Amino acid sequence: MPMNIRQLRAASHLMQTIMPQMQSYRNCYEGGPAFKNMTLIKRPSEDAALFREKLLNVAVMPICKAIVDEITDVVYESEPTRHPAFLNRATNADAGIPDWYEDFINNADLNGESFTAVMEQAASMAGIEGWSWVFVDLPAEVAKDNRPYLSTCSAEHVIDWKYWTQYGRDYLEYLKVIEYMDADCTIYKVWYAGDSKNPTYCERYVIKEEATQNEDNLIEPIETYTLPMGMPIPAIQVVARPDQRRSDLGVSDLQEAVDVQREMFKLECEAFDSIRFSKPMIRAAAGLRIPAGGGGIVRADKDQMEVFNIPTQDIQQIREQQQSLIDRLDSFTGRGSLRTTMARQVSGISIIEERRALHRKASQRARRMEAAEKEIIALAAMFMDLRWVGDIEYSTDYEDKDLQFRMALLETASKLSGGNSLVQEIIDKEVIKMITPPDETAAYLAKIGSSIAEPQVNTTDWMAMADAQGQIVKDKESDQIFDSEIQDKGVTTNDPIARQLIMLGVGR
Q1: Pairwise CA distance, residues 237 & 239, whole Å
Q2: What residues does 160 pair with on adjacent strands?
Q3: Ramachandran area for residue 230 (φ above 0: left; ψ -120 to 50: alpha; else beta)
Q4: Which of 22, 256, 27, 254 is nearest to 127 (CA)?
Q5: CA distance linking residue 29 with residue 41, whole number of Å
Q6: Dihedrals φ, ψ of 504, to 5°?
Q7: How crowded is residue 463: how many other Cβ atoms within 10 Å of its Cβ?
Q8: Which among 10, 317, 379, 486 could disulfide-bond with 136, CB atoms 3.0 to 4.6 Å apart, if both were Cys?
Q9: Relative orientation angle of helices 13-30 and 115-129, to the nearest 10 degrees
Q10: What does the pLDDT look like over 127-183, one tens digit per residue?
Q11: How far is 24 from 252, CA to CA, in rounded Å?
């Protein structure tokens, strides 16, 4: 249906409120000119040329980028384990592993990125702004090898959405997304969820820049397409950390770090100014020759020359304040073990506890990404008239792979054991495991009289396992309204108090 430009551009009141904060998170993560211009303000008496030089040359410490990337790297250090299993939606018969699934895992976005790489990108985007979106779609062109694909979208580009609730579960009812934007045009997609009689459908609008002069201009959709009956809006919201107040919002990993990065940059600019003016200032008349690099020159009366120094004792205080900020932030984010490269010592127990704090954050993120992956593959399977009944597991055994953690643990155990031979034997064994190639570990352990446990290889078909069969039976009997054709299950309550309780996650 036609919409005017004002309606298409309109973001929800919530997004209008939080958009500046989300853009500041993005600028802090990316650094560069956007962050510098957002943070640094020219003083009224400051020379414009010197201010531009400061913007160009002062380095930004990538604190926010390091925090988001650290958590994401820990989560995706090991490839998730996927156990594919599909049922035919019409007959509930075992469909085996379809041909398209392997290609989907290896090339999820049709541009060469694997499913894991796409999910890793979605996790990073969610860590920056609090949440991100993953869209599942099927190419419109009919082809033999047609199969679903994924596209990711940052939180700030989905400018409006609405959920409705059925039996305590939230479903997208409406969603508006900016698909593309440049200086010439903006492309919007507006999704509407179907019901028992109508399918889910999407309208695509293009707004040319010259048409934006009058916001009352009506824009016709250039394309409208529908999904198979029973399919929801194919978008999954990937949340970094759940908001305590609303179930459809997330909390950024950078909520505290952005202030630290801004403060660090401002202090660095102060130090830059002090260092730049550390050479003496020379007041000299025009025409007097001053050696290159002798200092700043200020014009004076005829035949006059005077040299005076500018105090720069604040540089040391600035560096101490910067180091204090970094130390305190690292201790909260679990990155304090990086400080062991400095001259001073950090206790092993401190490193252990800080790394465990990081592992807890990564474990929480892994559980949320695991749930998102299951929903994404379930949507992809629906496009192919199948039902996903498989399983996905994210490894959360981070302590066993964290070299900093293990070294600190062994060092602390050695100090506390008081030279106990049994503890030392365990330490020797663990050190050999860490420093030797995997294919040579057993030989080196044999030299100290130890052996490595043989890994248990599970050769059982996942579909044949008792737990898997129970899950398949459960999924066959699933009452999800989008598992088959949407059926009218009565009017959903829209009581505002009940809705608030549901959004708070109370009673779920």
Answers
A1: 6
A2: 176
A3: left
A4: 254
A5: 20
A6: -80, -10
A7: 17
A8: 379
A9: 110
A10: 999 999 999 998 877 666 789 999 999 999 999 999 988 888 888 999 999 999 988
A11: 11
